[in-house]
Design a protein that fits this description.
It is built from 55 helices and 32 strands. The chain is α+β, with helices and mostly antiparallel strands and about 1400 residues long.
Length: about 1400
């Protein structure tokens, strides 16, 4: 006989719902029986769910806690039946008042399915169900009575509804009426329960239960403290995931029959037991107890005795009732009045007697946390006799063996308790650090198996890690204070006041400033050996805490969870505090953490926090982790070198790693507020700038880093001084003052001299001030006597004047007033106040001494000497004081004279007057002849007799004398003249590429007047520049063709897709047959987006794919070598690998490789996110964005800010380069466009001075020069940032060195442009071997070698320039016909 299949619980439940669907429309249908069956199955499934020992604080859906649990499947079946839910709540529960059984069954069923429903869905804000439930819970409305089950079911439903704060506030008055009623009823139920318990006899009927018990009856009557101690010695516990497996101690006689009531308990919903009624009432009272308005009811009805009675599991046998009491007790402990009474009544000892493991022990974690949260409460607990050891022991057991929510709360409890010295000492005695570390290291998320976890488990583990790290931070902070106090006691001098001792039972609070001060004391006052003897550091090293923190910092980059910034900050703070020890610093430098496929050091992880901060959006950036990372970096790089520089090798290795991992770039980005604009929140900008500047001060002790920093725009362009002017936020003036002090230290570290924190400083002015301070000021005293004689005569002191004349032996001719000096252009001396000037802030930077007086610092004041107010200098066409500069002197005295001595003397006035004039010289000399008081001083400017004239006509005529270039510097002037003029003469549109196609790149053939064009559709097109015919020669690649390269024999074409291209690149053969061009594929590189030929023989090509570069043989397309450096990559967004001019070196991703051996030679510092750089054709320099590096010494020569994000195209003779900014086609419309995307600029490739800027009025995508450098093709596109599309592009050809008719007429403006170039020509010569010195390069930058054609001539130019200007003006009428001849002569 075939047996019928056994239906599962889920199938039976679904059959009941299906029967309801069929029969519910019958007139005589009674749903009571159906509700009874559904409730029975749900309660049975709930009991099975409890048997798995779930976390009682976990309010997730049961199917998410245990996916295979039947309860979750039953709840899902109900949730999916919307019609049944609506009928249950609106008809059976509310619409059937007269049917008591139906209403009671509906309320019971709704209470059973609550774990699978949203409370807001069941109880909307405006719903009559809640009013009805309040009436039923109070026993005021039938069918509920005084002891009716409906009353308790309604109370349970209200408990779920009052979890929502909005509902609890809305129903404040009903709650105020119901709470005292339920408290009184709860006391009656407790008396009933105790009476039942006392009346029953508990006889253990288990076999052999009498064995293992204490033989003496006195043992059964031992005081609770002794029993508690014996219980606390047991470290074994039940695993939360396996309720059937129990680890007992040797003296335990427990069995699962005894432990089951403690771990699972019961779920008697029908019939309701006394314990279940109390549980439902406590569930409602727990959220209500948090409100201050209802505290009075709890005190009035003596809720403390109720809670203590429930927590005593010798009288209360229901462990879940004890758990609900713990929940309510946790809410009541939020009120200090109740908490103090609870401690005084011995409630802490009652908590410790709750057995473990048990469900009630999980509730104890909530109570302990609320007790530890308030310092005054925990202080009272610590003062109790023998209360602290069980408190720490119970908390550590919760941390190890309890449910996940209890573990988190245990960590939070310890974090609060670590403000007390006694708690930390007891924590150490019980091995708490090891147990805390194990709680984190054994989490599945921190092990290899963490990759297969679900989202819920990951979230729970992340919260545990967060709280454990925060607890560890509090622990290390207290140990740091204790260690500092011990060191202070050993350093305490005899007779001095002893350091304040940390009280064991008083909270010790430390602010971040206190911690920083403690670390500073240990670093500066204690010896490195003494700091290394810190016992905590040794324990952390033995337990592997520091590698665990580094593992977390590496993993958190891909995590996203609540509290992540706080966790990261705590982890970095721990590293910061223990980094004062050298053993920790060595671990940060040399210790490696496996991060994916690479190994990462601790310093790199800290620097990656700064890099992520400089790239994050302000709304996504939390400044606290950044601040902690900066503090940790400052602790490492700014530590003292030691008395014998014993830490220097360690620091040098640290500085090297900071350079390797682009730490300077991150610090500069934070100083500037974030890369690409202000990204750091303005509220934290000043404090972060202070820390970043401090880190740079520590790094500046390295000679290599100091040489790099002094060449950056931070100093060369005065960016640091601009940041020092005012705070980013007016409320952060204190932080800004600290930043200014750190900035002054940085300037002093870079310049090697003491500087002040005010004024507009630059390295050039500081160097000039150093020269001025070393100058010995001498003057003719007879001239001074003559001035005094004239002053006495004008004041009517004739007798005194004659005495002075006689004693000083002034001759008659010297008594005449001096004549006003004249110059080529009528020059006169006038005082400062006769011409309008804009006063500037005065400052002083350098300490100096002269031969006459100490020269005290000068500051402007209303009663100053006239010599301070009117120092005369000569300017063109008129005279003024300082030519509009009111800066008195760059000299400062760090040792002011004694108060008894005169601060101002006649010699000091005269010396300062002359020194001021000397400071205004463009090129001051250290050794000068005696100064004159009647003539303005000016140091001679070096000039060349054979210097080429600035005027075009004069220079062209002078070629008869100097046939080469018309004199010294003539070639520079010719290049600047030619490459500042462009004339468009031809335009081509993409007519052969089809709809939606547009040009992206171009390239001239070397041997024929043909131009190759690449389109967005990957088409390769040919244009004859002499005929203008446009033809397509085939498809190069499937996608956009953004870059091309031609071999010198015009046979091979390299077609590249560029960054973002998914179609790879290709090598093509280009042939011509009877005037028809054809292109065939030779090899396709699927993974590489950029190709380039070798420079010399062009028998190899280099292919780029992000950080990887490969060299292939051109003939056979075989791989020769691959270049990559894991762990050292710079990560440039647009990396383009390129050969050196000699093909012996390869530059890829900012890394320099040896082509022969394949090893990395050097890593250049990263100062921009995208451009990876290129070689200068002279083979001596590398240009990476705005930085120019010396290829021989790897030193930073100078920076060229106009080259920011530019692509470079050099002329054939490497004398001029064309720079243009190509827009990011992938992020079009999502990033801020560059102001130079619609123009191309020309620069002198020998000194990187700016020549001209040509505005194309549309975005420039590509520039290419022909073989003679006479014609340039420019791809111009019309971009629509709003739509993120390209509206089309054209290829426009420009003649180099020629202008349109409209531009040829105003020759005066062109002449002014050439006059502006005078300051640049004197530093230029034809010898490339002498251009690499650091001083010359810095002078070029500081003197304004990057002037464009719009710059103006300085007013203090040498007098000899006037004659040349007049010659220039005379030659204007003859210049037009010479332009064409000059261009032809050059080409």
């Amino acid at each position: 006989m075939k047996m019928a299949p056994v239906l599962t619980l889920e199938d039976q439940f679904k059959k009941l719902l299906e029967s309801w669907e069929r029969e519910r429309r019958n007139d005589n249908y009674d749903a009571v029986q159906l509700l009874e069956s559904l409730n029975a199955q749900l309660e049975y499934a709930t009991l099975q769910f409890y048997a798995r020992d779930p976390d009682p604080f976990d309010d997730r859906h049961p199917s998410r806690v245990f996916p295979e649990c039947p309860l979750g499947q039953l709840l899902d079946a109900v949730y999916q039946n919307d019609e049944f839910l609506s009928t249950l709540m609106d008809v059976y529960l509310i619409g059937s008042r007269e049917n008591e059984r139906l209403v009671t069954g509906a309320a019971r069923l709704l209470l059973n399915i609550l774990p699978g429903l949203e409370v807001a869905y069941i109880f909307p804000y405006t719903d009559e169900k809640l009013s009805r439930l309040f009436s039923w819970a109070g026993g005021d409305e039938p069918p509920s009575g005084t002891d009716s089950p409906l009353r308790y079911y309604a109370t349970g439903l209200l408990a779920a509804a009052m979890q929502m704060a909005a509902l609890a506030t809305q129903y404040k008055e009903p709650n105020a009426r119901l709470v005292p009623v339920l408290l009184q009823h709860l006391r009656d139920l407790q008396r009933q329960q105790l009476a039942t318990t006392n009346g029953s006899t508990n006889v253990d009927t288990r076999p052999f239960s009498q064995f293992g018990r204490e033989a003496s009856p006195v043992a059964a009557e031992d005081p609770p403290t002794k029993r508690r101690k014996r219980c606390d010695s047991n470290s074994a516990a039940l695993s939360p995931a396996s309720p059937g497996k129990l680890f007992m101690s040797d003296c335990s006689n427990s069995s699962w029959a005894e432990q089951e009531p403690l771990l699972i308990a019961t779920y008697p919903m029908h019939p309701l037991t006394v314990e279940m009624k109390q549980r439902l009432i406590l569930q409602y009272l727990a959220p209500m107890a948090e409100y201050q308005e209802l505290l009075g009811f709890a005190l009035e009805h003596n809720a403390l005795d109720l809670m203590l009675g429930y927590l005593d599991l010798e009288r209360n046998k229901d462990v879940r009732l004890a758990f609900e009491a713990c929940r309510m007790l946790g809410s009541l402990l939020c009120h200090s009045k109740f908490a103090v009474d609870f401690i005084a009544a011995g409630g802490v000892d009652v908590l410790f007697r709750i057995p473990r493991p048990s469900i009630a022990a999980t509730g104890v974690s909530l109570c302990l946390y609320h007790l530890a949260f308030f310092d005054e409460l925990l202080e009272r607990v610590c003062l109790l006799p023998d209360a602290l050891p069980p408190l720490i022991g119970y908390t550590l057991w919760l941390l190890e063996c309890s449910h996940q929510s209890s573990r988190v709360r245990a960590a939070m409890t310890l974090a609060c308790a670590f403000q007390f010295r006694a708690s930390v000492e007891e924590f150490d005695r019980q091995g708490g650090l090891r147990r805390l570390v194990n709680a984190v290291s054994t989490l599945p998320l921190m092990t290899s198996s963490g990759t297969a976890l679900d989202e819920d488990r990951i979230y729970v583990d992340q919260q545990m890690i967060r709280q454990a790290i925060m607890t560890l931070k509090r622990y290390v902070e207290m140990h740091l204070a204790l260690f500092g106090a011990r060191i202070r006691s050993t350093h305490n001098a005899a007779g001095s006041e002893p350091p304040q001792e940390i009280a064991p039972h008083k909270p010790y609070r430390q602010t971040p400033a206190d911690i920083a001060e403690e670390m500073e004391f240990l670093l500066t006052s204690a010896s490195p050996t003494m700091v290394d003897s810190w016992e905590l550091v040794r324990q952390l090293e033995q337990l592997g805490v520091l590698p665990l923190l580094l593992q977390f910092l590496a993993a958190q980059e891909s995590w996203s969870f609540v509290g992540k910034p706080e966790a990261v900050k705590s982890a970095v703070d721990v590293l910061n505090m223990v980094a004062i020890a050298r053993r920790t610093l060595r671990l940060l430098i040399n210790g490696k953490i496996v991060d994916g496929d690479t190994e990462t050091s601790g310093i790199e992880l800290v620097l990656r926090l700064l890099e992520a901060a400089s790239d994050a959006a302000p709304s996504q950036l939390d400044p606290e982790p950044v601040r902690s990372a900066l503090q940790a970096l400052c602790t490492c790089v700014c530590r003292p070198l030691g008395t014998r520089n014993e830490d220097l090798p360690l620091l040098e290795e640290l500085w090297s790693q900071v350079r390797q991992y682009n730490g300077i770039l991150s610090l500069l980005a934070i100083l500037n507020g974030g890369s690409g604009g202000v990204r750091v929140p303005i509220s934290a900008l000043d404090s972060l700038r202070h820390l970043a500047c401090r880190a740079l001060v520590g790094l500046a002790r390295s000679e290599r880093i100091r040489q790099i920093v002094e060449k950056l725009p931070l100093f060369t362009q005065g960016q640091l001084q601009a940041l020092m002017r005012e705070p980013a936020l007016q409320d952060s003036r204190a932080e800004h003052a600290r930043f200014c002090c750190a900035a002054a230290e940085l300037i002093e570290a870079i310049c090697g001299r003491h500087v002040a924190t005010t004024g507009e400083l630059s390295l050039d002015r500081i160097r000039k001030a150093a020269i001025v301070s070393q100058t010995r000021v001498q003057f003719n005293e007879r001239e001074l006597f003559q001035l005094m004689y004239q002053h006495l005569l004008t004041r009517g002191l004739h007798e005194t004047a004659r005495t002075l004349q006689r004693e000083a032996r002034l001759e008659e001719f010297a008594l005449r007033p001096p004549k006003t000096p004249t110059a080529v252009r009528q020059r006169v001396l006038i005082p400062q106040e006769t011409r309008p000037t804009t006063p500037r802030r005065q400052f002083s930077v350098l300490q100096s001494q002269d031969s006459h007086s100490p020269a005290p610092p000068l500051t402007p004041s209303s009663d100053a000497s006239p010599a301070f107010k009117r120092p005369y200098v000569v300017v063109r066409g008129r005279s003024s004081e300082h030519a509009g500069r009111t800066t008195p002197s760059l000299l400062a005295s760090t040792s002011p004279p004694a108060p008894s001595e005169p601060t101002v003397t006649l010699d000091s006035i005269v010396v300062d007057f002359l020194r001021r004039q000397h400071a205004q010289c463009p090129e001051p000399c250290a050794t000068c002849p005696p100064f004159s008081l009647f003539k303005p001083h000016r140091c001679p400017v070096p000039r060349y007799r054979s210097r080429a004239p600035f005027n075009l006509v004069a220079r062209f005529v002078r070629r008869h004398v100097d046939p080469r270039v018309g004199g010294y510097g003539g070639d520079v002037l010719d290049r600047r003249f030619v490459y500042s003029r462009f004339r468009p003469f031809c335009t081509y549109r993409d007519s052969a590429g089809g709809p939606g196609s547009y040009f992206l790149c171009s390239q001239f053939l070397h041997r024929q007047p043909v131009l190759l064009l690449g389109s967005a559709h990957g088409e390769l097109q040919v244009i004859g520049t002499d005929s203008g015919d446009l033809r397509s020669v085939g498809s190069a690649i499937d996608g956009a063709l953004s870059h091309m390269a031609l071999s010198r024999d015009d046979r091979l074409v390299l077609a590249s897709s560029g960054l973002g291209g998914l179609q790879g690149s290709a090598v093509m053969t280009l042939t011509e047959t009877n005037g028809q061009w054809h292109a065939e594929h030779r090899h396709i590189f699927d993974d590489d987006y950029y190709l380039e030929f070798s420079k010399t023989s062009q028998d190899r090509i280099v292919a780029t794919h992000h950080e990887r570069a490969r060299i292939y043989d051109v003939e056979h397309s075989q791989l020769i070598r691959e270049f990559t450096a894991p762990g050292s990559q710079n990560g440039y967004e647009d990396n383009r690998a390129t050969f050196s001019p000699a093909d012996d070196l390869l530059l890829s991703d900012g890394l320099l490789f040896d082509v022969r051996s394949g090893r990395m030679v050097h890593k250049f510092e990263k100062f921009n996110p995208s451009s990876s750089g290129c070689f200068h054709p002279n083979g001596l320099e590398i240009v990476i964005n705005t930085e120019v590096w010396d290829l021989r010494t790897f030193r930073l020569l100078h920076t060229v800010p106009p080259l920011d994000q530019c692509l470079l195209t050099f002329t054939s003779d490497a004398a001029v380069m064309v720079a243009y900014v190509r827009p990011d086609m992938e992020r079009l419309g999502r990033c801020t466009p560059s102001p130079f995307e619609s123009s191309f600029r020309t620069f002198d490739a020998r000194d990187y001075s700016h020549i001209a800027n040509y505005d194309c009025h549309s975005n420039v995508l590509d520039c290419a020069l022909d073989v003679d450098d006479a014609v340039m093709s420019v791809i111009e596109a019309h971009l629509d940032p709003d739509m993120g599309e390209v509206g089309g592009s054209v290829c426009r050809l420009y003649e180099v060195g020629r202008t349109t008719v409209e531009e040829e007429e105003p020759m005066d403006e062109e002449e002014d442009v050439e006059d502006d170039e005078r300051s640049d020509i004197g530093d230029s010569d034809d010898d490339d071997d002498d251009d690499d010195s650091d001083e010359d390069d810095s002078d070029d930058d500081d003197e304004g070698s990057l002037h464009g054609p719009d710059s103006i001539l300085d007013e203090d130019e040498d007098d000899s320039l006037d004659t040349e200007e007049e010659d220039s003006e005379d030659g204007d009428g003859n210049q037009d016909w010479l332009v064409e001849d000059l261009v032809d002569a050059i080409f």
